[in-house]
């Protein structure tokens, strides 16, 4: 993400920069509350994503602990750590651990 501070808003320049940076992949999907979804890689060290798959865990059936909250996720984000993991330079399987939503 590039943030350019300006004294006044310049929507045309914002769109020009956004369109010329890295091509983005955006897909809107309607999903039900269950089952949960998770994002998976095809193979560790392969940047191509398999995409959203049904989660093997049924989180809706587990009771919340005293220090936990339930979040209705509205958007997720991938960070540098996720890309490094997808390249195979960091071991792990949990991608997209950042989210925004309603508590």
From TrEMBL:
InterPro entries on file: GroES-like_sf (IPR011032)
SUPFAM superfamilies: GroES-like
Name listed for the protein in its UniProt record: Uncharacterized protein
């Amino acid at each position: 993400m590039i943030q350019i501070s300006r004294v006044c808003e310049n929507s045309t320049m914002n769109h020009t920069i956004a369109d010329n940076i890295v091509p983005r992949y955006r897909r809107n999907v309607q999903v039900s509350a269950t089952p949960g979804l998770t994002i998976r890689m095809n193979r560790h060290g392969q940047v191509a994503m398999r995409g959203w798959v049904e989660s093997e865990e049924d989180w809706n059936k587990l009771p919340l602990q005293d220090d936990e909250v339930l979040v209705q996720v509205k958007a997720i984000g991938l960070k540098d750590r996720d890309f490094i993991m997808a390249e195979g330079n960091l071991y792990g399987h949990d991608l997209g651990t950042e989210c925004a939503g309603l508590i």
